[in-house]
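INTERNAL AUDIT FORM
Audit reference: QA-55
Scope: verify that the stored structure record matches its stored sequence.
Auditor: D.O.
Record contents follow.
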Amino acid sequence: MGSTSPTDDHDDGQSGAHEDEHTLNDLSRAGSVIQHAIKYLMEKNVDELAIASALLGGGLGVLANVLDRDAIEKILTNAIASVRAGELHTPGIATQTPEK
């Protein structure tokens, strides 16, 4: 049976919605900063692979601060699946893998 606390009547999911809105605002702000940084680096003729590698490494470092190893592995597994499914391919961009 549910609680009859008066505060339960007022919790209609709004706190979750507020947290979601806050998260979306943070994501938008972070995305904007990253896009400006990428644009700046490209204008300075920094190699695209170097930019992408630095962003990936930095992103993994941030994830390591807030998630455990299993959660990070799940994220990376999903990312690999997206690559294999062609979800990240942009038409007109080379699809060849870099030489090793």
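Auditor finding: record pair retrieved intact. The helical segments are 6-10, 14-43, 48-66, 69-84.
Action required: none
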